[in-house]
Amino acid sequence: MQKYLTPALLLCTLLSLSDAFCTAKDDVDKTWHAVGSSWRNSACMDCTCDGCCSAYGIPRGIPDDCVSVFDWKACDYIVHKKDDPTVLCTNYARVGK
């Protein structure tokens, strides 16, 4: 009986460890994450073990005197006046997120 108990316990231990991580890794960062966790990868995607989606909205209908620039640190678009980057534009819509 003992010769069957040890392999059975080892198998149960290995199975419980295999459930501690997602079955698929983050293809962008090549990282594994715990079940139930969420994270933001280096491509500005919000992820769970079920998949990833964009962490930002894409500006649409930007006024002609404005321009959108993506900020990789903030994972967001900054929309500002073309001739003065210190003046933010607010009259536009966002698609996504």
From TrEMBL:
GO terms for cellular component: extracellular region. Keywords: Disulfide bond, Secreted, Signal. InterPro entries: PSP94. The keyword Signal applies. It is found in: Secreted. It comes from the Eukaryota. The keyword Secreted applies. This is Beta-microseminoprotein-like. It comes from Amphiprion percula (Orange clownfish).
